[in-house]
Amino acid sequence: MYNVGFFQNLENAVISDFIISNDCNISSYNSGNIGSIAGVCKATKILNCSSSSNINCDKLYYCEIGGIVGVADSNSKLVNCFYDGEINADIHRANGGQEEYHIGGICGYAKQYVNINNCKNTGSLSGISGQNSSSTADQLKTIASIGGIVGLVEHCNLDSYTNEGRVYHIVSNLASISGGITRKAEGSIFSNCKNLGSVTGRSTGKSSNYSAMSTGSYIGGVIGLSVNSNVINNCSNHGFLLGYVNDGCNQCRRYSWNGSWHW
User: Fold this and answer.
1) Beta-strand relationship, 261-262 and 236-237
2) Residue 98: left if φ>0, alpha if ψ -120 to 50, beta else—which one?
3) What's the rounded Cα separation, in Å, for the pair 133 and 105?
4) Which string of DSSP letters, residue by residue, matches 21-59?
5) Which residues are bridge partners to 58 per DSSP?
6) Are 42 and 76 in contact (CB under 8 A)?
7) CA-to-CA distance for 127 and 102, rounded, in angstroms?
8) Within 13 Å, how many C-alpha atoms sit on residue 163's CB side?
9) Stated pTM of the model
C-alpha cells in the first residue's frame, strides 16, 4: 500500500494555514491512502487548511480517499478545514478478489479518537465500482462507500461541520452505501452537523439469483449505515436523496426523498 499527498505520512505533526490546489491523478492496480494534503496522519493536528485539488483515481482495488486526508488516525485533529475540489474514483478489480474503498470530502477513513471540528465540503464526490469476475463469492467481498465529510468513521468525535457537495455512487454486483456526512459510523459522536448536498446511490446486479447477489443501496442524509452505539445530536439533512436498485431479476426500483430531517 502506498500513501499519496503533499505529505505522504504525518505523525506527531502540526500543519496550519495550508492551501493547496494541485491536482492528483492515479492509475494503478494497487492500493493506497490518498489525500491532497496527507495520505495518512497519526497524532497530528491539521488546522485552518483548505484544498481545491481535483483527485482522480483509476484501477485501484483498496483505497481511502479524502479531500484533505486519506486516513486520520490516533487522536488526530482536523479543525477549520475546507474542501471544494472534485473526487472521481473509478475502481475495478478485473480478476475478482477483495475490493474496498471509502471516499470522504474531508477524510476517507477516520479512526481511533480522531476529532473533526468545524469542517466543510462543497466538492463533488463520485465513485464508480464493479468487478468483471463471475464469482458471486468474489463479488460479495467488495465494500464500497462514500460520505460527504468522511467515508468511514470508527470511534471518533465530529462537531460543527457541513456538507454541501454532491455525493454520487454507482456500483455493479455489490451494495452501495452513501451518506451526506458519512457512509458508515461505529461508536462515534456526531454533533451540530448539516447536509445540504444531494446523495445518489445506485446498485446493479447481473445474477438472476437476487438473494445470492445481496445488492442494494443504503442511503442516509447524515449516516448511510449506523452501528454500535453512535450518538447524534442536533444534526439535520436538507439534501435530496435518491436510490436505485437493480436486483438482477429484471427489476429496477427507485427510491427518493426530498425534504428535511432533524435529530
Assistant:
1) antiparallel
2) beta
3) 30
4) ---EEEEEEEEEEEESSEEEEES-EEES-EE---EEEEE
5) 27, 90
6) yes
7) 9
8) 37
9) 0.88
Residue 106 neighbours by CB under 8 Å, 6+ apart: 66, 67, 68, 69, 78, 81, 83, 116, 119, 121, 149, 150, 161
Which residue stretches of the chain have pLDDT < 70? 1, 27-29, 92-99, 130-144, 172-176, 204-217, 245-263
Share of the chain above pLDDT 90, in %: 54
Amino acid identity, position 138: D
CA 91 to chain centre: 13
Distance CA 77, CA 80 (A): 10
Scored b (16 or more CB within 10 A) or e, 65-79 reads bbbbbbbbbeebbbb
- Residue 234 CB: number of other CB atoms within 10 A? 13
Q: Which residue reads 492500493 in cell numbers? A: 31
Q: How many Å apart are CA 10 and CA 125, to the nearest integer? A: 24
Q: Which is nearest to 147 in space by CA: 47, 92, 218? A: 218
Question: What is the Cα–Cα distance from 236 to 7, expressed in whole angstroms?
Answer: 34
Burial of 251 (0-12, 13-18, 19+ CB in 10 A): exposed
**Alpha-carbon span 207 to 134, nearest angstrom:** 9
Q: Report the C-alpha gap between 238 and 150 in whole angstroms.
A: 18
Task: Answer for the pair 73, 35: CB distance below 8 angstroms, yes or no.
Answer: no
Q: Helix or strand or coil: residue 173?
A: coil
Residue whose C-alpha is closest to residue 189's, from 164, 158, 216: 158
Q: Measure the CA–CA gap between 212 and 256, rounded to whole angstroms.
A: 25
Tens digits of residue pLDDT in 217-237:
678 899 998 998 899 999 999
